[in-house]
Amino acid sequence: MNKWLGSLVAVVALSLPALCAAEVAVIVHPSAGVDSLTEGEVAQLFLGKSKSFPNGEQAVPINQNEGSAARKTFNEAVCKKNASQYKAYWSQLVFTGKGIPPKDGGDDAAVKALVAANPTMISYIDAAAVDASVKVVFKVP
Questions:
Q1: 52: helix, coil or strand?
Q2: Rounded to two decimals, what is the model's pTM?
Q3: If you compute the radius of gyration of the chain from its CA atoms, what whole number of angstroms results?
């Protein structure tokens, strides 16, 4: 019985990070002329392949600081890159003069404040931090 209980505890402990992973919401200013975006459209903005929303208005992507849980989840799920791959991707674009990476805007609260004050910005935060100051246009699955 002890061996079985030990195995169960190990399985539960290994599953906790996945169960505790927060949902990430992609946000824009409430007056932005976009109500929803696809995963591909969001990825194009954060990978520098597009500089505007589908309606043609300018889009300025803002990342959370390196190391944040939301950034890790976002990069892996939307950009399909881990932290080192994302950094290498942008290093190559910067080196060849083909792009400038999104600026880091801070944590959930700082990024939300930036987006709430700037109609052209787009970013992502923990879905639990969303309020009426921003509009959700995509949720990371």
A1: strand
A2: 0.84
A3: 17
